[in-house]
Amino acid sequence: MTLLDWMNQSKERYKITKSVRLIEFFGGIGATSMALRDIGADFEHYRMIEFDKYKVAGYNAIHGTHFETTDIRDIKGVDLGIVDKTHFTYLLTYLLTYSFPCTDISLAGQQQGFEKGSGTRSSLLWEVERILNECEELPQLLLMENVAAINNKKNMPHFQKWIDYLESKGYSNYWQNLNAKDYGVAQSRNRCFMVSILGNYSYEFPKPIPLTKTMKDYLEPEVDEKYYVTSDKARDLIDKLIKGGKILTNERTNERTNERTNERTNEQKICGDLEVGGQRGIVYQTDGILPCQSATQHKDATKILAVQSLTDRQTDRQDKTNESNWVYARLRSSQ
Predict the structure, then answer these.
(1) pLDDT greater than 90 at residue 121
(2) Tens digit of pLDDT for each residue in 200-238?
(3) Distance (Å, rounded) from C-alpha 243 to C-alpha 30?
(4) Which of 86, 120, 168, 334 is most buried, most CB within 10 Å of its CB?
(5) pTM here?
């Protein structure tokens, strides 16, 4: 046991025992709210800061709220509305999330970083510092999620500066890279999470659990033909995949069904490339997992399309419900 482990064990474990007032910076469509809702947490949508009007509209539609579009640079500490505190006891739990833009941190982006004063989108993190400095009362809990590159060699000095700042405000901070595939989701999505607790408390991240799902568990039995890939490159690739046994023809399905069902894995299985640029044309087998979408793809609309086997097309797409005849491809959209 290390000295750090011993020190953490000597700290009290923080427990949420009161209703949560959720404050979401960079709120998007409210992923944190969805998570709290799904675990049955007792919380209210207290504040939501988001400058994209479409995301705000989506948030309100999903959660039945009425928030307005807001720029975090216009927010003051008093706007958080942290009240209901009697002497040293909070009557409610205030949870502030601040998953700031990853655009300049992600390896798929320009990697301009988030240094304070740099003016990058990712440097909006330091607006959180300003707001916390303006607060008379601080939220008890902070939660951050961002790409794992936030703690790589290039970005770690700035990330450590942020951690040091939070410590100076009285927060105990715990961060770790967690991958979605280790927590029941058939996608490789490695992200850095940091939990900050006001006071001298300990925290442990959840342990990984076995993955029991693959892509095929999420596929619809029938897909509208407008999503089919019909390019010459796609047809040539499908022919190669059939010959290589990656896509099953109808007559080979029965003999391979049980075998493929048991080939579950928590890794990506690449079976081809449509050569439309970078990762956009890579085709993945359904008995593996998906990767993440690249951050650069927000500028170049993409779709995840189902590619059906050539045999099914020749037989007027009969037996559409056979999941073994489907793979996913990421393609440049024709839109």
Answers:
(1) yes
(2) 999 999 999 999 988 888 887 777 777 776 667 667 777
(3) 45
(4) 120
(5) 0.78
**Residue-range definition of the domain harbouring residue 291:** 215-332
Closest CA to 22 of 75, 84, 81, 89: 81
Q: Calculate the alpha carbon distances from 306 to 61, 225, 238, 268 in Å.
A: 29, 9, 12, 17
φ and ψ at residue 139, rounded to 5 degrees:
-65, 145
Q: Give the span between the Cα atoms of 329 and 307, in whole angstroms.
A: 7
**292 is known as an active-site residue:** no
Token representation of residue 314: 């020749």
pLDDT at 270: 74
Residue 327 predicted with pLDDT over 80: no
Distance CA 69, CA 48 (A): 9
Place of tokens 């579009």: 69
Residue 257: C-alpha distances to residues 252, 322, 323, 324 (Å): 9, 10, 10, 7
The last residue of a domain, from among 175, 202, 229:
202
Among 102, 135, 271, 292, the active-site one is 102
Q: Is 99 in the same domain as 194?
A: yes
Give the pLDDT band (50/70/90) at residue 284.
confident
